[in-house]
Design a protein that fits this description.
By secondary structure, the chain is of the alpha/beta class. The protein is 33% helix and 20% strand. The chain is built from five helices and five strands. A five-stranded parallel beta sheet has the order 2-1-3-4-5, with helices on both faces. Helix 4 links the parallel strand 3 and strand 4. The structure holds 1,3,4-trihydroxy-5-OXO-cyclohexanecarboxylic acid (DQA). 1,3,4-trihydroxy-5-OXO-cyclohexanecarboxylic acid binds next to loops.
Length: 140
């Protein structure tokens, strides 16, 4: 069975409560349960969230040589982190960058991603559905 990790970065533990007009009113755990059920026969899905850059990097290293892919929403670290970009470049598993909101419709500092050039692809602005589409793509 294939293995895919969904990895969420800072402040995404507050999904459902945080700026619901931008990020929606569903918490991620609840969404993840429905995703896991939908894909249960095709892939072993796991989920990890951290607010810390180093912990996100550790997780990328941990799964990046054995998993079939990582769906990564690095939150604001997307726009700042050379270290996460280097971690993505260092591993073998493909990574898809996901953003719930359309970052290109928002402040200009959100238009720059340090990660995208090392990712298989980028999905932005499609809400939580972006995670499902990324998983589908990684399954090939
Ligand atoms: C986000 C967009 C980022 O700019 C922001 O810092 C986030 C969430 C998104 O999913 O739309 O924390 O990655």
């Amino acid at each position: 069975m294939k293995k895919i990790l969904i990895l969420n970065g800072p402040n995404l533990n507050l999904l459902g409560k945080r700026e619901p007009e931008i990020y929606g009113s569903q918490g991620f755990e609840e969404y993840f349960e429905s995703l896991k059920t939908a894909f249960s026969s095709e892939v072993q899905l796991s989920y990890f969230q951290s607010n810390s850059e180093g912990t996100i990097i550790d997780k990328i290293h941990e799964v990046g040589f054995s998993y079939d892919g990582i769906v990564l929403n690095a939150g604001a670290y997307t726009h700042t982190s050379v270290a996460i970009a280097d971690a993505i470049a260092a591993i073998e598993s493909p990574v898809i960058e996901v953003h719930i909101s359309n970052v290109y419709k928002r402040e200009s500092f959100r238009h720059k991603s340090y990660l995208a050039q090392n990712c298989k692809g980028v999905i932005a602005g499609l809400g939580l559905m972006g995670y499902e589409l990324a998983v589908r793509n990684l399954l090939g």
